[in-house]
Amino acid sequence: MLNSKLCLNETIFTKDKDVKSTRDGFGDGVILAGRENENVVVLTADLEDSIRVSKFKEEFPKRFIEVGIAEQNMAGIAGGLALSGKIPFITSFAVFNPGRNWEQIRLSISYSNTNVKIVGSHAGLSACADGGSAQALEDIALTRVLPNLIVINPLDYFEAIKATVAAAKHKGPVYLRIYREETPVITTKDSPFEIGKAYTLIEGKDITILSTGPITYEALEAAKKLKAKYKISAEVISCSTIKPLDEKTILESVAKTKKVVTLEEHNVMAGFGGAVCELLSEKHPIPVTRIGVEDKFGQSGKYKELKDKYGISSHHIIKKVLDFLKN
User: Fold this and answer.
1) Catalytic (active site) residue 71
2) Which domains does the chain have, with CATH numbers?
3) Which of 46, 259, 311, 322 is the residue whose CA sits 20 to 30 A from 107?
4) Measured between alpha carbons, how far is 320 from 94 in angstroms, rounded to an integer?
């Protein structure tokens, strides 16, 4: 049954389900953070409309900095602002931020443990029309390896709002991974969110599906069909915080089901599934299947087509779960 404590959106399994992008959630959330704390500032690299920070600029023009197409410089500026007491959010596409400016993030933000919030938009396959050069399928690996850096991949629009506000309140570096495409709104404005906490969306007993980000909707669809057609009870857990993982929730679930599938819109190499495998290999060794992009670059196409092409849509998840259980 659905966990009522999460106040899940009742439309998620209907044809007229609500859809909104997590980049819109960030845009609304950073305004709330700015209203709560006058030290919040936003920097962007010539992408204010794409990253949804135009409204922040309108409301707080003196707290908005356009650095131009200079992502590496933006990270250094943000480190200095943080050392002077500001709470800077640096924003660009995820292939550039943290992709292009990774070394500056490492030194000026992570190594220095400065209070900077890194926002990478158009993550995963969501820069769908722009092709493989613009699709960030490596950013989880790039960020989770850096000491001091929290890594968050919000589930949906409402969670992106809450994650942005929570990131502003957290003392230290945070990476916030957001998406261009509109995706199903799974939670509500009343659903809880806490950095470092995973949430059970569907309770089950036969297998655990651990998922991160908006692709979790595909896991929910798969779990629904596995139950209806194959009588397989899948427990679906949303792990929006990739670093640190909620070890307690994960270990309690796998102790019950004894089998795990991970799902991510990212390269399966060194991503969320890798983080789960590292945890389980040390604390509860059990069989694991990782579902994600199989060590490839993306390509141009419609978002739905690309999810299907790379094997992360619900019918692929169902097949992989059935094969996993059979073998």
Assistant:
1) yes
2) 19-184 (3.40.50.970), 196-326 (3.40.50.920)
3) 46
4) 29
